[in-house]
Amino acid sequence: xxxxxxxxxxxxxxxxxxxxxxxxxxxxxxxxxxxxxxxxxxxxxxxxxxxxxxxxxxxxxxxxxxxxxxxxxxx
Length: 75
Description:
- The chain is mainly alpha-helical and 75 residues long.
- It is 83% helix and 0% strand.
- Helix 1 (4-38) crosses helix 3 (52-74).
């Protein structure tokens, strides 16, 4: 193994960042669709205070996904 334990740690860290990025992107995509469906303000031009329903929607979805994974890990 040319990189040894350091290579393993770097590889696992890269996987963590890739999976976390995909999870956040999925939550944002769902929140965009939800806000468009209900006609709420959304988008990066409004900021968190300008689109509180959008911000709340993606944070709640991320928390829900984490809770589902936590529950699955307890079994």
